[in-house]
Amino acid sequence: MDCPLVSVGIPTYNRPEGLRRTLEAITSQSYKNLEIIISDNCTPGENGEKVQAILRDFAAIDSRIRYTIQEKDMGPGYNFQFVLYEAKGEYFMWASDDDYWEAEFIATCMSELLSETDIAGVFCNFVNINHFGHEVRFFTLPSFGVRNFKNIFNVVKEHEIFGKANPIYSLFRKKMLLAALQISPFDEMSFSDANIVVTLQCIGGIKIIPKYMFRKTLQGIVSLKNESDIKNYILRTPIITNLTLRHYVFKLIKTGIKCNTMLPIFTALFARCCIEVLNKFKRVFKV
Question: What is the biggest distance separating any 2 CA atoms in the chain, rounded to whole angstroms?
Fold first, then answer.
């Protein structure tokens, strides 16, 4: 197999021990032709000192690592874009500072990208874990086929708690990822990642490998495990009334127009509104 350069971008903030685990996982990948780019978003205080010490230690023993300490907190959107624009490889992936990857993750994804030259990225099934490392939920994802009406519809319609934004951590062809960001740029509002995933689905597609090679750490209420608790959470959560969700909807509509995929996106949004009306009916009448 050819081994082109893969750039791994790690935006980090205030998670020294999570960063250490991420660097251990990435530097241990069986695919070796990597550049590892870390941007610390000005972590304050004692944790900032710990982050810098970890970066110095890893960089001293692995020449593939280079890092930047931002002079001030620039926000997560900036930090994500910074590591991408610093990347020199033809292929790129983001790595969060509190997740886990199997050692074959990059090699397996790269094999698929080299064999299917028209897809934008490759991801896998994944497991949600909590901060204790306990497994919470297993996710089996469909392939996000290019311009596939059914897949686009299902991704847009699905509630965010079911992890539809996680393919943002795919291994991508960098040129396709940059093209998607021209259509749907990062911002500091929520759901930018979900909208970028939809955009990539529209312009190139994301292949899903049927293996569990990625473990995503959950935070807060989304770490719910019990199915009835998840259902109750969805029933309580408005879909369109929240400001950030309205922002997400507007961005989706723009994406649909620019990618000529308005029909599946519009019908999915209509379906979500119908689901919300039904949920409100259930709350009011307790059925």
Answer: 63
